[in-house]
Amino acid sequence: MANINVINLYKKIIQNYWDNRSFVLFKKPYEKKIYLFSQDEKSKKENNFFLIVSFNQNTVIKIYTKTIYSMDIEYSKEMCHFISPLRNLESSLLIYSKKYKNSIEKAIETIKKNKDFEKVVLSRYMKIPFHNLYLKETFQKLIYSYPNAFITLWYDFNHGFWLGASPELLVKCYNKELKTVALAGTIWGNHKWTNKEVKEHNVVIKYLVNFFKKFSGNICVEKTRILNMGHLHHLETPISFSFLEKPNYFKILYEMSPTPSICGFPKKNSLDYIQKYEGYQRDFYTGYFGPVYDGGNKIELYLNLRCAKIKMDKKEIVLYAGSGITKDSDVNKEYAETENKFKNILSNFIFD
What is the CA 154 to chain-centroid distance, rounded? Predict the structure, then answer.
């Protein structure tokens, strides 16, 4: 790993972009470092890469890097002032979607009629045009707004720019140890927790516990806590598993994903329902990504949530948000949840 200053960091990013080479800039939760992986096909033997996988796991990007660059960051009062909301621009940009509201109603009815169908996560997207977008400043603002999130800015020639601030760890693996979290159930502002959020959260815990029963080892389910991300609050339960024999983590990932937090339960029912009724391809939204070291001996992956695809050629941002639908769901509340998730990232974009 090599230290780099901010000027050289952005020089490398710009050079990669003009050379049509993939790169990723990211910050891990609670760390005060920014990392850069810069595509170098000759470095595949190095076995260090940033892995990006789509929701359907059909598209896989590996950004191999010869050198992992890192830069220390500091949280200053000036920057905290900088990240204060400039105006409620995001409220005026939200567009009402009757189609999505109807989708929620239909999903609730379907689950109520089918006792074997507990949950489905339905999402939607929103397109926002822009004249000038300050990408560097937006990335900085996300870092200082959400120190407990996985902040990413990545670029691939075939897939363009993606920017995000994910609250959800998928897996953290080293040797025989794996850590994950069940994260589901969302409220905002001064709303109170209800049985709906608790039950929705427990679906994810049950799925993960049952998934690891097929392996030899020991599981530990910690106490559920609240993860705060801006004005949003999520239920989060850390889960760890110690394997007796080191497994193939990539095989585990393929079998484990997608979890009920971004898909539903049972998996087949929810996947079929999403494919039939969601009405668009999620692409990398709700996929997973993160750094892989030493050929897979050390892995840290997160779900691609609170993210946006940035189409520079069309001067357009595509935002994504979803909500977990159960038989206890309230249509208006689920709809409002997606609006609040849009605001969670859109409020950090800096436009001209």
Answer: 13
The domain total for the chain is 1
E strands present in the chain: 2-3, 23-27, 33-38, 49-53, 60-64, 69-72, 119-129, 150-156, 160-166, 169-174, 177-188, 217-221, 225-229, 232-243, 264-265, 288-293, 298-303, 307-311, 316-325
Domain-embedded: residue 81: no
| Predicted TM-score of the model (pTM) | 0.94
Residue 287's alpha-carbon distances to 55, 56, 166, 257, 262, in angstroms, are 4, 7, 11, 9, 9
- Domain membership of residue 36 (yes or no) is yes
Q: Which structural domain range is residue 293 located in?
A: 2-75+89-346
Residue 352 lies in a domain: no
Give the CATH number, domain containing residue 49.
3.60.120.10
Please, are residues 51 and 289 in contact by the beta-carbon 8 Å criterion?
yes
Angstrom distances, CA of residue 275 to CA of 64, 72, 84, 264:
32, 42, 39, 12
**166 domain residue, yes or no:** yes
Cis (ω within 30 of 0) for the bond into 258?
yes
What amino acid occupies position 246? K
Which pair of structure tokens corresponds to residue 345?
């990232």
* pLDDT, one tens digit for every residue, the chain (352 residues): 899 998 999 899 999 999 999 999 999 999 999 999 999 877 666 689 999 999 999 999 999 998 999 999 876 544 444 444 444 445 555 777 899 999 999 999 999 999 899 999 999 999 999 999 999 999 999 999 999 999 999 999 999 999 999 999 999 999 999 999 999 999 998 899 999 999 999 999 999 999 999 999 999 999 999 999 999 999 999 999 999 999 999 999 999 999 999 999 999 999 999 999 999 999 999 999 999 998 888 999 999 999 999 999 999 999 999 999 999 999 999 999 999 999 999 999 998 7
